[in-house]
Amino acid sequence: MSSILGALFLILFPLHLNNVRVAYQESAQGIVQEAASAEGQIGEQIESEIETQRQQINLLLSAPSEQVNQLVQQGRLSQQQADLIAQFRENPDQIEPYLQQGRGQLNQQAEEVQTQIGIRREAAQQQLRYNALRSGLRVGMGSLLLSIGFILIGWIGLKNLRQL
Asked: If you count DSSP H runs as helices and E runs as strands, how many of each does the chain have, helices first?
């Protein structure tokens, strides 16, 4: 009976290693997908921010100068922003270069965030590899030792039966 248990542990050892491999691959794929999703959201946020700025500029351009001055007095608009609106009224062609400059700054910030995402992704993948290796070794070595022990017990039992 113990030899059968030893053989069973010997058979289950590769199955466990396969399960660890499958779980590792699924988790690694999840990490990559989360990182890609986060990077995609950054791009969407940049476009959304640029579009919001464009809409605010257009809204302020359509407002009378007196209303812009009131916003400055109320503290809802800085003097620098009011000056920009005045420049854009005089030369509307400056709006797109201004927005592109803002896009450049946002892209630079996005690159820094993407670098952080990459670092976190690598750290998560490294931790996942370590955990998978540790699990595979721990259970694998336990299964091998149990199978060897049960097979030896069974072999000794069979040896003793022959002597009777």
From this structure: 4, 0
